[in-house]
């Protein structure tokens, strides 16, 4: 059964890669199919159509599609690669941790508060160059 499930995950990855499915659809499908899978596993007879195996295969295919959708950032308009970070932006950061500086840089962990006036969230490894850095940044 594990080889079949591995093949189903690979099939899901291929489907997700070539059909460009947004990650929300397979995620919702998995959440809908999991309770159905539980009920079918309790009621299925030994004889007859293998509903449990079919549902398990569908869930693993959805898992493969979901993983590809998340890794390719499909259907996520607010994800950071789609924010145009190649252009100059105004960041509002709050320094959370100050690491030990070396001769070349002064590293900091900063929490992102806003990006160009829009509320944003996340963490950022910020490094200021040692030669250009005259005063320490305090949080």
From TrEMBL:
Keywords: Membrane, Transmembrane, Transmembrane helix. The chain crosses the membrane at residues 7-34, 54-72. This is DUF4131 domain-containing protein. It comes from Flagellimonas halotolerans. The lineage of its organism: Bacteria, Pseudomonadati, Bacteroidota, Flavobacteriia, Flavobacteriales.
